[in-house]
Write a structure and sequence with these properties.
By secondary structure, the protein is of the alpha+beta class. The protein is about 30% helix and about 30% strand. Helix 1 runs antiparallel to helix 3. The chain is globular. The protein starts with a helix and ends with a helix.
Length: about 100
């Protein structure tokens, strides 16, 4: 498997040290929510990271509800307006993503 576990593992450990608990949802998908839930339901808002099979960043999205949200990163482009205006409460996590996937 060409999945970059080193970078992903380092990212998850760093985030854990910052008090943010990321979870995996299948291969190449991680998500984070400020709210902890005991069940399998998602608590909004949610920050999603999608990676390709090599561990490269494909997209980052910020969901505010079921089928509602903002694209923060797609096709090597950061959408700064969405990052700065719609995803303010997860800006520190977005900064970490940018640090690990420059």
């Amino acid at each position: 498997m060409a999945y970059s576990l080193g970078r992903i593992g380092s990212f998850i450990e760093y985030e854990k040290s910052q008090g943010r608990q990321w979870r995996k949802k299948g291969i190449g998908q991680l998500y984070y929510s400020n709210f902890v839930t005991g069940g399998s339901r998602y608590n909004y808002p949610i920050l999603w990271i999608v990676l390709d099979s090599r561990g490269n960043l494909k997209s980052v999205s910020y969901e505010t509800g079921h089928h509602m949200g903002y694209t923060l990163y797609l096709n090597d482009i950061w959408f700064e307006y969405n990052v700065n205006h719609h995803a303010r409460d997860v800006r520190a996590a977005v900064g970490s993503i940018r640090q690990f996937w420059p």
